[in-house]
Amino acid sequence: MAELLRSLQDPQLVARFQRRCGLFPAPEEDPRENGVGPAEGAARDAGAGHLPAASGKCARELANGLRRAAIPQSYIQKYVVKNYFYYYLFRFSAALGQEVFYITFLPFTQWNIDAYLSRRLTIIWVLVMYIGQVAKDILKLPRPSSPPVVILEKRMVAEYGMPSTHAMAATAISFTFLISTLERYEYSFVWGLMVAVVFSTLVCLSRLYTGMHTALDVVGGVLITALLIALTYPAWTLLDHLDSASPLFPVCVLVVPFFLCYNYPVSDYYSPTRADTTTVLAAGAGVNIGFWINHFFQLMSKPTDIVPAVQNIPPLTLEVLVLSVTKFLVGIVLLLLVRQLVQNLSLQVLYSWFRVVIRNKEARRRLEIEVPYKFVTYTSVGICATTFVPMLHRFLGLL
User: Fold this and answer.
1) Looking at residue 298, what is its pLDDT?
2) What is the model's pTM?
3) Are 105 and 236 in contact (CB under 8 A)?
4) What residues are labeled active site?
5) What is the pLDDT of residue 198?
6) Residues near 297 by Cβ (< 8 Å), separated by ≥ 6?
7) Beta strands 311-312 and 79-81: pairing type?
């Protein structure tokens, strides 16, 4: 077993997968040939290697973070793509594992498919993401070393690797969606299973192709998610009735996630892990508070205790497609406006409270500023998505 774990953690395994898919490191160049130091040379090469360059204070901070994460600074390198089919396939698949995809997919599910299915997906997504993010900063296992691996994503490289939260989120969303929709809609289980497997597999393989995770990180993420789904499945029906559990429900939903964010495990250096975790937990809190508001003011019909009759999936006509796209665009525009407004307002209040210069973007990384402004912003977005967007849809006659 120990030998198997070592082989799965071997960066050479990731490098061989990249080579088989046509991704190779470019021939090495000595940055001192042009009279620049290693840091400046690496930053210069980044611009030619499909990665944004780092310079000045940002480059020094990035170098320090990489050094502490056991990832050499040479990760910023040129690379050669010999198979563009795999390149675009896995870059697209990697984008499907980003938080921004789920933050748009989950509202789309609510506005166009099933509101309670959307909340169930959101709760499972928040659970697995929080456990995965915290596990990274507790285990502190480094990402694959470069060389031999080619690293394609600079923003995530300062984080630790185990487990892959992309793999966890993709597995959780796809299989929770499959299991939940089988209770409400009649369609081929085989086809649904194939879609879930293909989606989660593409996202998992994209983490190897982009050089962000070892095979052990990906396998660990999938297994942890499978265990969480199995353990929580008996309670899924109760999730549909959380909003009527207690009048104090909104307080618990706000206090517990905020406490978890504010007491997030301290890292040796700054990474976006805490900020991303705050975004996820805040969005989940906002969604649940929005459902509580809908129940309290009777803005939305509530599912009965009896499992609804399984129904056929309605045909996808041009009219249905146009209506779905319109509802999505109207909702997204409102969410973006709320996000920008609340973010600017919360930052101004926090900057004034802590006497920080407004233009000092580095101050956003301070614990007492980063967590509150992100939590308030994305809680507001979650409430807006579940309460005010449906009200706007009804006002515009889109329901």
Assistant:
1) 66
2) 0.79
3) no
4) 166, 213
5) 93
6) none
7) unpaired
